[in-house]
Please model this.
Amino acid sequence: MKKQTPDNPADNSLSRVDGHVKVTGAATYSAEYAVPGLVHAVLVTSTIARGSIKAFDLQEAETAPGVLAIITHLNAQPVPGWPAPKQPAERAPAGTAFRVFYDPFIYFDGQPVAMIVADTRERALHAASLVRVTYQQEPHQTHFEKNIGKAAIPLNVQRSKNSPFQDYTRGNAGAWAQAEIRIEAEYTIPTQHHQPLEPHAIVAVWEAGDKLTVYDKNQGVKSAQGQLAQAFKLPREHVQVVSPYIGGAFGSGIRVWPHTVAAVMAAKQVRRPVKLVLGREQMFTSVGYRPYTVQKISLGAGKNGQLQAIVHEGVGQTSMYEEHLERTVQGTRTIYACPNVTTRYRLLPLDVNTPTWMRGPGDATGMFALESAMDELAFALQMDPLEFRLKNYAESDPERNLPWSAKALRECYALGAEKFRWENRQMQPRAVSRNGMLVGYGMASSLYGFHRHPSKARAVLRADGSVTVQSATMDIGPGTGTAMTRIAAGVLGMNAKKIRFELGHSALPDAPGQNGSSTIPSVGSAVYVACESLKGKLLALAGEMDERFKAGRQAVVRDGQVFGSDEDKDGLSFADILKHHHLNELEAAEESKSGAERDQYSMYSFGCHFVEVQVHPLTGEVRVTRVVTCADVGAIINHKTARSQSIGGVVGGIGMALMEHSEMDHRFGRYVTSDFAGYHIPVHADIPAIEVYYIDKPDVHVNPIGSKGLGEIAIVGVAGAVANAVFNATGRRIRTLPITPDKLI
Ligand code: MOS
Model:
């Protein structure tokens, strides 16, 4: 293992290749594309949660200055890929994606009901305020607990025997009742919204010949291209999606949402390029959220601390019209060695918009509950929580009965505990105080599945010796371009400054969207093989020039030159090789994907978090004062950006644990926390120094670069570790997030 300290990460530590353009404002974000003739669209949204539109009064809005069009379900040009609405109109049945301006029905508060197109955004906003809608209101159901009796097996699961969301049992489903030491508890996480600083935005441009270009904030240009091509019945290549810079997304950009389709509709209807930017309030009803989820966990162990039974049941919220499923209970099947495990997952449809994936989707929710429950059982056993986890360490995947491709969670525990000085933890709560604050220690484990999708990359060496690498991947913040540059620089033996990585355009080589922590494992592998292929071509050309570089010799690349061996001092520059062969450029394009190893090994990222909190004994204020986070994600490609990603995940986890809560007023079925005054996220003053450590050992079975996903593992488990620390500080077990002061006094 490389020697690491938090301030001095090991050698692979490139600064962000796009850092300068981002901080100087030179990077163009979706709302910033200056297209000639651009006009502005603003959505008018429903003020009821369920019912239908009776009538519009548009007189005032239509005559307001600058208004070019008002689009509603009554005059919207049909979206060619959608079936014609039924006559008379019918409510969308469960399991249908929401279609904007399609029928008169209201499915949730904040649903777009009309769209103003005007010459300026200000005039569009003003006209939007003049739109009058009368509704036929129907009683709505938005209250989770009051409706939990209606939770059911998702339709998707009923239809698919092989669904990973099916009920699961290994061993004896009744084993819990016989365990010597038992706990049983219910855990609740409220709705939480991703709130990237950059709101979702799109500039939609139709060109001659029915060609569409969108500058759109999303997490996958190729999937957005596919979805828009399908909706507007266009050949894929007639749709281009451009999204090179993104101001955070956390999962909110994985799907194409109704506002994107609306902007494309508007641009078609007014025959002008249209810009649409969601207001902050609209971010709460337009681009999904982490669903309200209630979980029940029953854990049983022998007096020796050996787990005997786990039953984990989860109920998540979804909309009335569509199902969103996530891995709430699935991690429980895998994380510990336990002979008897049962999991069940249900959905509760409510009159709300559809949730979506939010960083660590399902796993962050599930591991809050499981890791809280593990802490509760450890306390019941009077056993150290880390020792309890080690006692139940899964040496192979207990769900699939397969060896791990690699697992260094034991090393993570040891390193994290050492750096945190876990040995100072007191078993009894309220045992330590400092400056009048109660001090507590908590820890949690985490895991996240390995995802690798087929990916392509192209590497081109230019006559000046520079290299451009391209792939239609994304960067929602982790620094994809920087990591890819590092991979290319490593393979080609070049200075990173001479490499340019291009992403975020649908015309680039096919790559998956940025989600599920899959970018480095998938696209990183493609970049690696494309650069290896380019290197091979270069060595072949060099071999034609000089015996020393002939195939089978020890030729190497470094400093942009080919050498006969590691010791050789007399190199041949890449540029000279091209020149000698009268080539302007040399290109290699490759695809990389998983093979048979997927069936031979179980592949996960692993990690653990150690948290210290201080709790004010009278006010219940919780301060996180120290965090040590440790992950085993195989090889670390670039320490500097990886470390930032881990820190960001921990910050998200602290927000989840202590602050984030989308509060709804159920009289109206409306969020009342729909701005940064109401929806609290951590600021710098809330965040202590976070120490990040990696095991940094390649997982040789997963892909050619030995690297697994980091984005989600960084947040999974953090909320549990905070809740466990709060218990250790106060003796109060808070099972409903967020842990706000009112719950502690
Ligand atoms: Mo992530 S929730 O897959 O952006």
Notes: Residues 633 and 708 are 5 Å apart (CA to CA). Residues 150-191+290-451+599-743 form a domain with the Aldehyde Oxidoreductase; domain 4 fold (CATH 3.30.365.10). The chain is about 25% helix and 25% strand.
